[in-house]
Amino acid sequence: MTHPDGHPPSITAAEALRRLQDGNQRFLDGRARFPTIQKEILADLARGQHPYATILCCSDSRVPPELIFDAGFGELFIVRVAGNVLSQEVAGSLQYAGAHLKTNLFLVMGHDGCGAVQAALDSLFRGKRELSRIQALIDGIIPGLTGIDPSLPPSELLPLAVEANIRHTMRQIFESPEGRARRAEGRIHLAGAVYDIESGRVRFLPGAPAP
Q: Which of 7, 34, 119, 157 yields a CA-CA distance of 20 to 30 A from 134?
C-alpha cells in the first residue's frame, strides 16, 4: 500500500483542523454538503486516496466522523476502536497514514458517555471485570485514569475520564518511536476532541500535547 504519487498533501495541519471545525459547524447548521455522491467521484477515488486528516475515534455507532465533519468520500482516514485506545494494530494504521498517505493532522476523538471509559472506571475503582477481550481493551484505558479522584460525582467523573483517556492516547502517539521521529522532523500535529452525542458539537481540547 503506497501513496499514489508519493507526495504529501498540500493542506497544512492547521488548515486540516479548520476544515474539521468548519465541517462540524455545517453539520450543526444543517448545511451538510454530501447527501449523495456522484459516480464520477467514486471512479476518481478508485485511482487513489488523498485524505487531509487522520482520525482515531470510538467505534460507537452514534459517532460517524464523516457525517460529523461533513466530509466526503476519501477526505478522512478513519481508525475506529472502542474507547479510541492505541493498540498495536491501531498504531500500525496510524503509521500507514503518516508514512504513506502523508496526512499532516492526527485527531484523537472521544465522546461523552463513552461506555468503554465508564467500564474502565468501574474496573479501576470498583474492581468490576468484563469478558477477557473486553477487559484487555479496558486495561488499555486504565493507565490514563489513575490521577482521577473517584469521589467526584458521576456527572463530573465520566466527562473528566473521557478527556483524560483522549489525552492518554495522544501522549502514547506523541511518545511512540514514530511520533518522536516525526516530532524531530517537525511533522507531527496532534489534536484532541470530544464529540457531544446529544448536540452533535465537537469540542476541541486546548493544551493538547502537540508542537
A: 157
User: For residue 142, what is the domain's CATH number?
Assistant: 3.40.1050.10
- Inter-residue contact 25 to 18 (CB < 8 Å): no
Identify the pLDDT of residue 210: 40
Pairing of strands 202-204, 189-195: antiparallel
Closest CA to 33 of 18, 23, 42, 41: 23
Q: How far is CA 149 from CA 85, 156, 158, 160, in A?
A: 21, 10, 11, 10
Number of structural domains found in the chain: 1
- Tell me if 209 is assigned to some domain: no
| Residue at 128 is within a domain | yes
Residue 138, C-alpha cell as written in the block:
479496558
* Amino acid at position 102, single letter: K
pLDDT (0 to 100) of residue 115: 97
Domain coverage including residue 176: 13-204
- C-alpha dihedral sign at 91, 167, 203, 190: negative
- Residue 103: inside a domain, yes or no? yes
d(CA 129, CA 79): 26
Look at residue 33 and tell me if it is in a domain. Answer: yes
Whole-angstrom distance, CA of residue 54 vs CA of residue 101: 9
Q: What is the pLDDT of residue 181?
A: 82
